[in-house]
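Researcher:
Attend to token order:
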Amino acid sequence: MNITILGIESSCDDTSAAVIENGYMLSNKTANQQVHKDYGGVVPELASRAHQQNIIPVVDAALKEAGKSLQDINAIAYTRGPGLMGALLVGSSFAKGLALSLQVPLIDVNHLLAHILSVFLSRKENQVPVPAFPFLCLLVSGGHTQLVVMKDHLTMEIIGQTIDDAAGEAFDKCAKVMGLPYPGGPLIDRYAKQGNPERFSFSKAMVQDLDFSFSGLKTSFLYFLRDRLKEDPNFISGHNDDLCASIQKAIIDSLTHKLLKAVKKTGIKEIALAGGVSANSGLRDAVKQLGKQHQWHVYIPEIQYATDNAAMIAITGYYKYINHQFSSQHVTPLVRSDHF
């Protein structure tokens, strides 16, 4: 018997739907929201309205690409959180209504767990290597930075996390200080390829054990630019590439330093990198290089599955389905990860 899961993702500003069958991806469709660029960040109310407009066309497109009808669906998985409440409500309400009408099980998914399980995404005709358990994941996104030990597909133990800003926030806020448009993280990555990462140095927080901190780095960057701009109003434009390369190196150094400590502490050499910031080419290269140096097995999802997508929701839903972990119609969205 085939197990076919429809996944729905609506945690922030991407409306996405995907179909997974027997653990393999059949489709993954996403509608991006361009309206937020004018405001320098995601506007929750606008995001919610756009989800309402996009969700039916996106689900329809995902089913068509998969060659499936609604009657083929065995369960519907959706993002319960963390995320923006209004955005989550659109996805969860749609999923609940559809599951009820089809009389199929409903599966709520932790968005962060789904990011980690994105390393298991593949198509039947193009299968990718997957980590053995237990594996260690560096989860890096706009709102979260964590070191997680995965004991099986559905059991995660957080052994380190940020005590303030996430790495993705540091990228975006530093980009904003430089005057780069939203989203700034990908632009820093692009300009960093042309810059000298050793040109400038910024103070990094020395947090004990396996936790992270990026607020001090962000403040150091802000004050550095403030002082340089007093001397030269054109300092940023004249050193744009080097600034991007230097701040990117500082953030990556902080991440990889703690990853190395985590590997030494746990002895685990099955290493995954996941979350939206795992799309950063500098971070991907740094983790791959460490893997070669220390004989790790490194697993990083393709760029298109690093950022928010429904395929990761659907694959998580698949593993929850085969473990009979279903949810009721009364489950409500959760904005914060510490509520799971």
Q: What stands out?
A: The first strand starts at residue 4 and ends at 9. Residues 240-266 form the longest helix (27 residues).
